[in-house]
């Protein structure tokens, strides 16, 4: 029997999502990353140890490792999930909003010029995508997900009830971790834009992350005026900074 098409609800997404098997996040070599981080001056505790990260995975997914798992994507997971999925839907999380509030000193910034990453915080509404991992793949695929999202202590995994056009689903979601020392208080749009415009880290320029997210929302036809304004402000700051270097 042929497996159902993962893009059956949204065939237009087929060309807009990275093939999980070719994603760089699927083949991350933590030994190489540790070596690189040490070269940048970070100590051995720059990330969670493998045992601690896996304990978090097992605790969160207790009783669910052989069941279908829905995963909420509100940032880069939307276009590059790096795990094998069998279904994808547009989804809305009510009572939570996307906020650029996580100080990034590794992936999209440095300690001297930190970037900002998005987190899911309480209040408001957040639109995104939700992916389904079939039950027989959850054990293996969740390792890739935890290695990416729970590498540090930025997020707290929690199950939320999401609305989709096909009905409600309970989905694993990565909320901001209140105990994370890199969690920042609310910032103004201008301050946020400046920080993103000038930061660059292990995974590349911070502004690439913001532009990808905003452009993806525009392509999906999802309305997020604040996100679009933030992108435009950050791009303008970036242009001014590059122009000053060429003078």
Automatic annotation (TrEMBL):
It comes from the Bacteria. It is an enzyme of class 4 (lyase). InterPro entries: ChaC, GGCT-like, GGCT-like_sf. GO terms for biological process: glutathione catabolic process. Its EC number is 4.3.2.7. Gene3D superfamilies: Gamma-glutamyl cyclotransferase-like (3.10.490.10). The keyword Protein biosynthesis does not apply. GO terms for molecular function: glutathione specific gamma-glutamylcyclotransferase activity. Pfam families: ChaC. Keywords: Lyase. The keyword Lyase applies. GO terms for cellular component: cytoplasm. This is glutathione-specific gamma-glutamylcyclotransferase.
